[in-house]
């Protein structure tokens, strides 16, 4: 329920945070399962937010297990279609819990759903692929053994920046792959290696860092500058807070987006309350509030084109 409520709001917020979002194959966004999306992982939780928002059908995720430690985190993340998966660094005792994540993924795929897995198993703020883990191959192998007609969709995700407000994002998807494309061996271990080798080549071809025309009209620059000025209080406060909380980590973009997503409506309500208290007519208050996101969009878009 929470997933469906948040999705349209997140799409709206991403239009401001990432105003230049390019998808090479729009038709793939209507895809039906069973599909396992295998993607690179350059920008923490923002990767999952973007991918889930652009596909029209619900997506289930495998997410790092330590994010589920607190009870309310566990409840919320599961409501957002996430399954915890653990790495060795999060404790050997937790590795046995991964069987549940893989089984949940199999159940979703068996019901013609879509599962997203970040096949590198680690996030670094780089577009160079890291060595692949075996999780995606394991899920695919189990499904094919059970006769589930699973397709694998390779996906490459790239950003113009990992720490700047206003960014271009490219999402490139390859051709759907089936069992005959990815597994030829009788032995599971050999199949896992082959699966990863073939997908590494496919995904590497899809990683295309955004390029853009740095020319922007004077009108856009003026509107963008106005947007920067009126959003200066909230943006500077939140940016400073996030930088202090996420030094030397890959979480800056994701945390900043999350805070803006939840705090921006409160910021607009406060503006409306202050204007109402000084007896500004209601229709003018509504117009001022409505124009804020529009100016934020132009501020974000102008930053992409004017950034050196």
Walk me through this protein's architecture.
- The chain is α/β, with parallel strands linked by helices.
- The chain folds into two domains: 2-206, 3-Layer(aba) Sandwich (Glycerol-3-phosphate (1)-acyltransferase), CATH 3.40.1130.10; 218-306, no CATH class.
- The protein contains twelve helices and seven strands.
- It has helices at 2-17, 44-54, 71-79, 92-95, 98-110, 135-145, 179-182, 188-206, 218-230, 232-245, 252-277, 282-306, and strands at residues 20-23, 35-39, 59-64, 82-85, 114-118, 151-159, 168-173.
- It has a seven-stranded mixed β-sheet with strand order 1-7-6-2-5-3-4, sandwiched between helices.
- Strand 6 and strand 7 (168-173) form a beta hairpin.
- Helix 1 (2-17) packs across helix 2 (44-54) and helix 6 (135-145) packs across helix 8.
- The longest helix has 26 residues, at 252-277.
- The two termini are 42 Å apart.
- The mean pLDDT is 88.
């Amino acid at each position: 329920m929470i997933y469906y409520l948040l999705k349209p709001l997140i799409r709206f917020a991403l239009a401001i945070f990432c105003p230049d979002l390019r998808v090479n194959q729009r038709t793939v966004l209507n895809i039906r399962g069973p599909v396992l999306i295998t993607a690179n992982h350059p920008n923490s939780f923002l990767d999952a937010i973007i991918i889930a928002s652009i596909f029209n059908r619900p997506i289930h995720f495998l997410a790092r297990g330590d994010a589920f430690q607190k009870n309310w985190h566990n409840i919320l993340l599961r409501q957002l279609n996430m399954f915890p998966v653990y790495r060795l660094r999060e404790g050997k005792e937790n590795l046995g819990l991964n069987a549940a994540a893989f089984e949940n993924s199999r159940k979703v795929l068996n019901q013609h759903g879509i599962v997203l897995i970040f096949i590198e198993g680690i996030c670094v703020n780089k577009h160079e692929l890291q060595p692949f883990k075996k999780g995606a191959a394991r899920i695919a192998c189990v499904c094919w053994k059970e006769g589930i007609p699973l397709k694998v969709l390779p996906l490459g995700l790239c950003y113009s920046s990992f720490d700047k407000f206003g960014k271009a994002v490219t999402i490139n998807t390859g051709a759907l792959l089936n069992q005959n494309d990815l597994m030829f061996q009788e032995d599971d271990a050999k199949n896992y290696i082959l699966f990863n080798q073939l997908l590494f080549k496919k995904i590497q071809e899809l990683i295309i860092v955004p390029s853009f025309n740095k020319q922007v009209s004077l009108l856009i620059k003026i509107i963008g500058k106005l947007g920067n000025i009126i959003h200066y209080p909230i943006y500077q406060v939140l940016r400073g807070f996030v930088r202090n909380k996420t030094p030397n980590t890959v979480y800056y973009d994701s945390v900043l987006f999350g805070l803006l997503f939840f705090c921006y409506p409160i910021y607009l309500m406060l503006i409306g309350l202050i204007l109402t208290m000084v007896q500004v007519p209601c229709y003018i208050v509504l117009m001022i509030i409505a124009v804020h996101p529009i100016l934020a969009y132009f501020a974000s878009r102008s930053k992409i084109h004017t950034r050196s």
